[in-house]
Design goal:
With 335 residues, this protein is of the alpha/beta class. 42% of the residues lie in helices and 19% in strands. The protein binds zinc ion. The site of zinc ion has 6 residues, from loops.
Amino acid sequence: MDRDRRSFILQASALAGLAVLGPRVSRAGAVVRRGVTLLDWTEIAEGVHACVDRWTGGNTVLFGAKGGALVSDAKFPFYGEAILRDTESVFGSIEGVELINTHHHGDHTGGNVAFKARGVPVIAHRNATDHIRGSYDVYIRDVTNGPSMVERVEHLKGRVGPVARELADRADALGIEDWVPDRQLGQETVLRVGDGAVEVRHFGAGHTDNDLVIHDTQRNVVHAGDLVFNKRNPYFFPSGGATLRGWVASLDKLLALCDSETVVVPGHGAVGGREIVGWQIEYMQKLEGAVRGMLERGVPRDEVVGASLPFMTELGSPGVVKRALGAVYDELAGG
Ligand SMILES: [Zn+2]
């Protein structure tokens, strides 16, 4: 199901519910409070909002409940404060709010700094902590460059620019502890969110060695993190634990969580259904098949890295393609 179709169905079901449920009905599919919030949010299920703006970093999901909310991923540093203020605007308070990181990459954890500054607990897989501790230079670079990065995003610069400048002005006072998670998860768990709960799963190393999948079973929403790059070439960073084999194994387990109605939020790209998980699995299978074929024909590494494979090149980002081909070559050549 493509996004427009899904969005139509979500809106149609919201309208269908309107007659029966009255004012408490889901506004699923609607863009909420544009002009009031700093970022643009879409309600993807009742009380669950997603910000999928490609310029802001990884996709963020707000899982709302009575008496609390879970924010899943915090984008680049200067967007953290925007997410927090929007959480307050959408749910009326940040009382009972917690933040969870789907993995350690800076476009998902940079905003931790804003949550920690306001005393909001930050949760991540235990393997994320060392990677985060090693990312100080990345975070400070992004903090410092924040104002100019926002300036290039026409539809957000007026709203987020002041927040980015405030953070950049504090750069000298920031230390790595301002990003480090407060609570580490070592295994699958159920997290209380106000009067509700979400299941948090770790399928082993895939995109990183600390991937978490957030599954709201009541509202049938899954935040897949960067296990899924919907219609984008996925980033391979072996130093963070990425392996093709592990990634596919994780995707298979992720797919098993989904039914035909599940709303899947990828780490990057548009919200969809379980078909976007299937698309990512097919992509990985094509990638493995192509690299394995070249390896068997004795094609040298630099030619594999420079190969032009239509299913990849059509998605752009040539640097990301090269990185993926190199990483998969090394993995398969290493046995
Ligand atoms: Zn990532």
